[in-house]
Amino acid sequence: MLSQIAYMQKYIRHQARPHTVKTALLNKPGESRYYHVPYGSVLIIGPWNYPFGLVMTPLIGALAAGNACILKPSEHACRNSTH
Q: 79: number of CA atoms within 13 Å, CB side?
């Protein structure tokens, strides 16, 4: 998980920048760019067998993309590691 956070910190500027794409002949001499825009809200439902890791992994990417996140842990997951 720490390596995913480090990866996002290193490459977020490159991934989020606008990308130039091929312009249609009708729109010449203009130029076309593709902008990355967040979807909005993301719901992440956690499993019972590995709740922390399998919830945090998609959370890292969703937050890096600029989305608002809602986490729903499993009702079957243990409350602490002693169970």
A: 0
- DSSP for 36-75, please give it: ----SEEEEEPPSSSHHHHHHHHHHHHHHTT-EEEEE--T
Percent of the chain exceeding pLDDT 90 equals 33
Phi, psi dihedrals of residue 55, rounded to the nearest 5°: -95, -40
Most distant pair of Cα atoms in the chain: their distance = 66
Q: Give the separation between CA 68 and CA 2, rounded to whole angstroms.
A: 21
**Mean pLDDT score, 44-72:** 88
Could you give phi then psi for residue 68, rounded to 5 degrees?
-85, 135
Residue 33 host element (H or E): strand 32-34
Q: Pick the residue with more confidence: 51 or 32?
A: 32
Mean residue pLDDT of the chain comes to: 86
